[in-house]
Every structure is written in structure tokens, then in C-alpha cells.
Design a protein that fits this description.
about 350 residues; alpha/beta; two-stranded antiparallel ribbon; about 20% strand; binds 3-isopropylmalic acid; binds magnesium ion
Length: about 350
């Protein structure tokens, strides 16, 4: 029987609750699809600061590196807001992305049929089925560029640098083209090439990589236009590829179209099959410990893990199907509509297991 080793980074806030439900579902999927999972836990974010003084202890990096995949809950909270920037929980998240070489962040924005009415967009704008894949570069650009404080014209100032190398752009472009080949063969590259030199290099490089994929129809949008088009006519998009910061912003926007940010999963992939999987939402400290968080984004992240790291396509589709089925009648408070059953985080996990 195949065995997979997973490192769990439960993190802060609702992180532990949602990861526990995702583990339940993964164990049920393992039983049904005949594979076996072993878990190890490690600390990341605020909890790691509390225990060791830093958001990303070396032990955590080592435990992640020795696993087949990583499942992450969420990090951060008001308790650590006064930490210096380089020691915030978020710095731990960026640190683990960098340390594990997770350069390709896949953020699918899909609408589950029972949640169509929850989208803030009108039904006729969403169309039949919205299914956008945002491919965000995750270990370069302004998130990782040189930054600092300085003085300009005798007054205090600060700077962050957007820098991309050609190989960094090429490898993320290839991930996006490969995905486009498996989907509708349409790719939209998003940049700000009318202003930024780094964007001009981005565009030139994407155009060059496109020659390797003559079947893919490539177009380019400036990021401001893309943000507008996402709410004007989201149906025009299939795969979107963009830089670290633009991807951060556009993926939040795209996610909201699907009704709730509590529904969206993500995969952060390294070269090869290794990946870290996490919901795209945060640690929601305001509802932590109440058992009312929505575990579905984390459960769907497990489905992505099965698909991208373990080649367990059937098990992945099974989980997605189970989530769709459970959503017909059952909702956590964030997606509740009258006429459905209001369920807790743990009940939602149990229901998905039963539907499996
Ligand atoms: C995300 C988050 C992170 C990011 C934060 C928490 C550092 O917003 O994963 O989208 O900006 O990448
Ligand atoms: Mg974000």
C-alpha cells in the first residue's frame, strides 16, 4: 500500500480546528482509496514565536523537507502584531515558502452550484460555471526583494524592490502554460508593463515561453484592467499567471466571486511533486476556538494535495464531489442561508466523511 508522509502546520487562530477536520477527511479518503498517511506536526507562525521566539524554527523547515507534502492551517493574530516585521507570523509563512522553493501558487476560484446565490455578482455575470485558476509566482518579486528604511531629501523614507530574473519568470510561465494545456488552452498574463521595467521583462519572457506552447492562446492584461475585468466579466478568464504581489491581490478578488473566501483552497508547488497546501483565508482570530470556522477550504486543499503531489486523481475528485453534495443542505455560519442546516466545523468534517 502506498504511504504518504505529511507534515501538519496547524498554525494560529482557527488553524488547528480546520486542519483537524481536513485530516479526518484525508484519513477517510485513504481508507476508501487504499493508501496510508502518516502525520508529523511542526510549529509555524505565532505559536512558534510563543514556543521558540521565532516564527519559523529550523526544526519546522527540516520536518517539512522530510515529508512528501505539507498541510498548513493559517498563521497570525493580534497577539503578535507588535513583533518587528521580520519576526511576524507572516514572515514565517514567507520563510517556509522560500525555504521549500514553493515558487508556483495555484489558487482555483470555482463556484459550487449550491453557493451560486452567495456570490456578490449577479447570476448572469457569473454565467454557468466560474472556474478560474490564478497562478501566482510565490518566491520572487517585491515580497523577496531588497527593502529598507532610508532618507530622501532629508526626510524618513522606505523602499521595497520588485525584481524578477528571467529563469524565475520562465518557470512560472511554464507551470501556467502546462495547466492551460490541460484546461481550455487559454492563458492571460497580468503585469503592469506600461509602467514597470520588471513587468516589461515579465511580458517579453512570457511571450518567448509561449512559442513552446503554440496551441495556447495567450493574452496580456495590465493589472488594473484585470481587476476590473474580473468583476465585469469573469467568464472570459481561465488560467491567469502573474507576479507575487499582483497574484496576492487578484486571488483575493477572484475568490470572493465564489461566495466566500472560506471555500478556496491553494497549492504551493516546488519543482517536482512536493507541495504545501493551505486554505487561502487567514487565521480568523475573532472566531477561533468557537468551532464555527468553515473547514471546507482546508478539506479542498487536501484534494489538491492528492491531485498534485500524490497523483490520486480519483480520491481528489471524490472529496470535491463529497463537498458539493454536503453543501446542498449544510452550511457553516459564513455561508449559511435560511432553509439549510447550520453546522459546526466538526460537523462539517463529519458530513464530508460520511458523503465519502
Ligand atoms: C496570502 C497571504 C499572505 C501573502 C500573507 C499572510 C503574508 O495574504 O497567502 O495570500 O501575502 O502571501
Ligand atoms: Mg493574500
Amino acid at each position: 500500500m502506498k504511504e504518504y508522509r505529511i507534515t501538519l502546520l496547524k498554525g494560529d487562530g482557527i488553524g488547528p480546528e480546520i486542519v483537524n477536520e481536513a485530516v479526518k477527511v484525508l484519513n477517510r479518503a485513504a481508507q476508501k482509496h487504499h493508501f496510508c498517511v502518516r502525520y508529523e506536526e511542526a510549529d509555524l507562525g505565532g505559536i512558534a514565536i510563543d514556543k521558540t521566539g521565532v516564527p519559523l524554527p529550523q526544526e519546522t523547515v527540516d520536518k517539512c523537507k522530510s515529508a512528501d507534502a505539507v498541510l498548513l492551517g493559517a498563521v497570525g493574530g493580534p497577539k503578535w502584531d507588535n513583533q518587528p516585521g521580520s519576526n511576524r507570523p507572516e514572515a514565517g509563512l514567507l520563510g517556509i515558502r522560500g525555504a521549500l522553493g514553493l515558487f508556483a501558487n495555484l489558487r482555483p476560484a470555482v463556484i459550487f452550484e449550491p453557493l451560486r446565490a452567495s456570490s456578490p455578482l449577479k447570476e448572469e455575470i457569473i454565467g454557468e460555471a466560474m472556474d478560474i485558476m490564478v497562478v501566482r509566482e510565490l518566491t520572487g518579486g517585491i515580497y523577496f526583494g531588497e527593502r529598507g528604511r532610508c532618507e530622501k531629501n532629508g526626510v524618513p523614507a522606505a523602499y521595497d524592490t520588485e525584481l524578477y530574473t528571467v529563469p524565475e519568470i520562465e518557470r512560472i510561465a511554464r507551470v501556467a502554460f502546462e495547466l492551460a494545456m490541460k484546461r481550455s488552452k487559454r492563458l492571460c498574463s497580468v503585469d503592469k508593463a506600461n509602467v514597470l521595467e520588471s513587468s516589461r521583462l515579465w511580458r517579453e519572457t512570457v511571450v518567448r515561453v509561449a512559442k513552446e506552447y503554440p496551441e495556447v492562446e495567450l493574452n496580456h492584461l495590465y493589472v488594473d484592467n484585470c481587476a476590473m475585468q474580473l468583476v465585469r466579466n469573469p467568464k472570459q478568464f481561465d488560467v491567469i499567471v502573474t507576479s507575487n504581489m499582483f497574484g496576492d491581490i487578484l486571488s483575493d478578488e477572484a475568490s470572493m466571486i465564489s461566495g466566500s473566501i472560506g471555500m478556496l483552497a491553494s497549492a504551493s508547488l516546488a519543482e517536482g511533486k512536493f507541495g504545501l497546501y493551505e486554505p487561502i483565508h487567514g487565521s480568523a482570530p475573532d472566531i477561533a476556538g468557537q468551532g464555527i470556522a468553515n473547514p471546507l477550504a482546508t478539506i479542498l486543499s487536501v484534494a489538491m494535495m492528492l491531485r498534485y503531489s500524490f497523483d490520486q486523481k480519483e480520491a481528489a475528485e471524490d472529496i470535491e464531489r463529497a463537498v458539493g453534495a454536503v453543501l446542498k443542505d449544510n452550511r457553516t455560519p459564513d455561508i449559511y442561508t435560511p432553509g439549510t442546516n447550520r453546522v459546526t466545523c466538526a460537523q462539517m468534517g463529519d458530513l464530508v466523511c460520511q458523503a465519502l
